[in-house]
């Protein structure tokens, strides 16, 4: 992404050393608190961190009253009303503890003069390894075998997988995570194809870069690793699914809206799509990162997905390793330090 390489000068004036910095952390889970508190102590600023488990939107923005900064995650809403509300409450900086920033209205943030920074890279291997965990599980049906064996059912019927060695895997997006995924797949003996409008140079050593249509036609497994943008929304739609090999596997650990869920359900029902593994879901906002086990799920598409034995869903946990959380917290606190000092921030977005 072009903004990765940019070094953008913070527009904020430096906060004096004596000014107590306060940051409201939204969508905060216990592990966020653990790693951010640890990084905050190590950074030695220290800033006062206030944790809220609710997601940020224009209504909850009032919780940031008295804070100069907010810290947010993938499903927090930073649309224009939300940003204006934050600004009205005195917030001057938004720190994303994730790489993607598709949930931020950057034009409005710039108009308000807000400092916005993200964590562009943290253990791409963490997401790549989760992608492989999904592929391996779905391919060898370990999610079903686990339940069977616990119930004393040792029958193997229905558990036939395919040897991954020799399979062709299409990697859409050859950036940090796509590259890490391709490396692991090569290690397994897979043929790797890539598609990317700006392919990374390192990918050339791992596989051929081909047009999207060719990748879809030739791959036994298609794995998505590109960012969500206007161009990539519903990249996998009816037409793309029709090009895929009958029985192929689709894996999405990137962003939910890359996939048209209704189209995918259609392809699963017609038995054309062999299997689906997702760590992200277009309408994940009201579901993921919460315990909804005692409640009725109103989302009909999600409920339908749950009925397929050949669909595997995890709740956006690709990033969730101790190492990645440590890096995310350290970079977030470094971004905070840049804002506080009025320094140029290499991770600024906008
Ligand atoms: P990156 O910026 O290093 O690589 C993205 C690649 O996608 C770039 O090479 C870019 O040229 C390519 N790309 C852009 N438009 C494309 C298109 N239309 N078709 C194919 N390729 C295209 O990003 P990185 O670090 O590899 O992350 C990829 C995505 O993974 C993020 O945007 C984010 O959505 C997702 N992610 C998911 C996580 C999870 O927990 N499940 C955690 C972290 C990131």
Describe this protein's structure.
It is a single chain. The chain has 350 residues and is of the alpha/beta class. The protein is 34% helix and 13% strand. It has twelve helices and twelve strands. A seven-stranded parallel sheet has the order 8-7-6-9-10-11-12, sandwiched between helices. A five-stranded parallel sheet has the order 2-1-3-4-5. Helix 2 (30-43) crosses helix 12 and helix 5 packs across helix 7 (176-187). The chain starts with a helix and ends in a 9-residue tail after the last helix. Mean pLDDT is 93; it is low at 1-17. Residues 1, 99-100, 121, 124, 127, 172-178, 195-198, 200, 225-228, 231-232, 253-255, 279-280, 316, 318-319 line the site of 1,4-dihydronicotinamide adenine dinucleotide (NAI).
Query: How many DSSP helices?
Result: 12
Bound molecules: 1,4-dihydronicotinamide adenine dinucleotide
Amino-to-carboxy terminus distance? 12 Å
- In total, the number of strands is 12
Low-pLDDT ranges: 1-17
Oligomer class:
single chain
Give the fraction of residues assigned to helices. Answer: 25-40%
| Class from helix and strand fractions | alpha/beta
Overall spatial form:
globular
Topology order in helix (H) and strand (E) letters? HEHEEHEHEHHEHEEHEHEHEHEH
Strand order of the largest sheet: 8-7-6-9-10-11-12
Main pleated-sheet profile: 7 strands, parallel
Task: Outline the secondary-structure elements.
Layout: H1 2-5, E1 22-25, H2 30-43, E2 48-51, E3 69-72, H3 80-88, E4 93-96, H4 106-111, E5 115-117, H5 124-140, H6 142-150, E6 168-172, H7 176-187, E7 191-195, E8 207-209, H8 212-218, E9 221-224, H9 238-243, E10 249-252, H10 261-269, E11 275-278, H11 300-305, E12 311-313, H12 322-341
Parallel strand pairs: 1-2, 1-3, 3-4, 4-5, 6-7, 6-9, 7-8, 9-10, 10-11, 11-12
The chain binds 1,4-dihydronicotinamide adenine dinucleotide (NAI).
